[in-house]
Structure formats: structure tokens, C-alpha cells
Write a structure and sequence with these properties.
The protein is built from 6 helices and 4 strands. It is an alpha/beta fold and about 150 residues long.
Length: about 150
């Protein structure tokens, strides 16, 4: 999937920045330094990386100017509800967060983009935060994901 995105980006004349190596070496801020220096508008990552930097207490919003950043793409595994909260609280509040989980991939390559105007809601289905039916207000009773 990511290869297709990279080739598509090049086909329409945009630049692609690729990072080959550990996203936490030499420290957990290396990718955000690159995003800041290169003025990235779209940042592709994984739910696991977002969870790891949250655990390391990384707060890019306090350390970097991410003015150009408009969209964060997360794929590879479902993003937990806490991941959505982390992105809007500690990365950037006015970014579009688009997550592709296994449930969405079964239906085709259609991402579930978050609304940038309304505050993020916790998922009603733990571990499947990007299901189309997963947007429930915080505190709503959690039930098994119907996609599985």
C-alpha cells in the first residue's frame, strides 16, 4: 500500500521523504525533526510508532514548528482511542488524522479520516478505532467490533 502511495506522489510531481532506519534512533524525535526541517505536509506512520512516542513522553507540538503539516496517515494496525487523543493533544490539534485498519482494508483502500472541527471521540470498539461505526462519544459502552 505505501509503495503505491509513494509512486503516486512522484507521478503527480510531489516530493517524497523516506526514512530508512529505526524511527527512535538516535532519539524518538528524529522523524519530527525531519518533518519540521523539510516542511512536510503529509506524515505517514504506524499506530505502533505513535504509541511508542507517547510512552516516551514525546511532545512534538512543544518542540517543533509543524505549521506545514496538514495530514497524518497511520496504517499497519488499528490506532487505539488514546492514540487519537495523543495526536490532537501533543502533536497538532488542527491536523487531519487518517487511519487505515484491517477492517477498512477488507472493504478496500478507503481511509477513515477524522473530522478536524469536532473534538476526537473514543472508539466504541477497542482496538479498531478507524471502523466506520466506531465513533461514539467518550464514556459510551464498549462492545466487540462488528468488523471482526
Amino acid at each position: 500500500m505505501m509503495w503505491n502511495w509513494l509512486v503516486s506522489a512522484l507521478a503527480v510531481g510531489t516530493a517524497a521523504v523516506l526514512f530508512d532506519g529505526s524511527p527512535t534512533y538516535p532519539d524518538a524525535r528524529v522523524l519530527w525533526r525531519i518533518a519540521d526541517q523539510e516542511k512536510l505536509t503529509v506524515f505517514g506512520t504506524s499506530a505502533r510508532y505513535l504509541a511508542a512516542i507517547e510512552k516516551e513522553n514525546v511532545r512534538p507540538r512543544e518542540e517543533f514548528r509543524l505549521d506545514a503539516l496538514r495530514t497524518i496517515l497511520s496504517t499497519g494496525s488499528p490506532l487505539a482511542s488514546e492514540g487519537f487523543e495523543y495526536v490532537y493533544r501533543d502533536l497538532k490539534s488542527d491536523v487531519q488524522l487518517a487511519v487505515w485498519c484491517a477492517c477498512a482494508r477488507r472493504r478496500g483502500p478507503i481511509g477513515r479520516a477524522r473530522n478536524r472541527i469536532r473534538p476526537p471521540h473514543r472508539s466504541a470498539f477497542p482496538g479498531c478505532a478507524s471502523c466506520p461505526t466506531a465513533r461514539m462519544p467518550a464514556g459510551h459502552r464498549q462492545v466487540p467490533c462488528p468488523c471482526r
